[in-house]
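Example 3.2
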Amino acid sequence: MTAMHRLEAALESAAFGREHEWREEVLASLTTLHAVSVQAEDEAVRPDSLLSDIAWNQPRLRNRVRGIRTQYRQLRDTIEAILSEQSGGAPVDSADLRNRLAWILSAIRHVRSRESDLIYEAYFDAFRADLADEPRQPVGLVEPPDRHIDEDS
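Structure, written as tokens:
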């Protein structure tokens, strides 16, 4: 999410009169988003990933898993194409680039929401309970070590 917010902030900044700096800022943010998209795609196709588990254990959801994986790959390819095309140094059309990258950001949100829906549906099918019904356990909380308090203090 941080990479998306960074790109949004870069896209919202003024381009007029500072096209070169604007493009560099946008491309740096897009490069970060690309790295995140590669990680997301890699995670989605790993044999030990949650999506792989869903595809293996819930055959009726396999096509949706495949669709999510395909969308991640297409997003990665589209970002790579934009980065490649923009690295040339040709004059930048900031309005066009803003529109194209706004579409990318929207597509990322869409695939992430589809993935969330799929995970929740798979969980419900497996356990016949909503995640919200499960008792929440704090994650990553470590109790402080016992401190010996000196009685003389």
